[in-house]
Design a protein that fits this description.
Elements (H helix, E strand, L loop, with lengths): L1 H11 L19 H29 L4 H15 L4 H21 L5
Helix pairs in contact: 1-2, 1-4, 2-3, 2-4, 3-4
Keywords: Signal
Length: about 110
């Protein structure tokens, strides 16, 4: 289930994580946007690796591969204190925000 959802949703998504809280930074802090972008970049990279694993598994049909990916996503989500569905939703949001930012900067179409 997770493999199919990751593959379908991440390919169609575009970036920037809207659920990040920056309680340590005031709205006047000039570094907050940069830090937010770095967090989004990191999250997007992690999500991209999961997407690559899902694509690889889809093409190779490696025995136990889908179960491995599902366990990996479940473990990563738990490490972050989230459900698998929350983690995947945040991947979709971060990819959407990242892609939107890159497009606004003139990179990507």
């Amino acid at each position: 289930m997770i493999l199919k959802r990751v593959k379908q949703n991440l390919k169609l998504s575009v970036i920037l994580l809207s659920t990040i809280s920056f309680g340590a930074y005031s709205s006047n802090d000039d570094t907050a946007p940069l830090i937010e972008m770095l967090i989004i970049d990191k999250h997007t990279g992690a999500c991209g690796m999961i997407q690559q694993m899902a694509s690889f598994q889809s093409s190779t049909k490696m025995e136990g591969g889908a179960e491995f990916i599902q366990r990996f996503v479940n473990t990563e989500a738990a490490r972050l204190g989230k459900t698998s569905n929350e983690f995947i939703k945040e991947c979709e949001e971060s990819i959407a925000r990242y892609s939107g930012t890159m497009k606004a900067l003139g990179y990507g179409g």
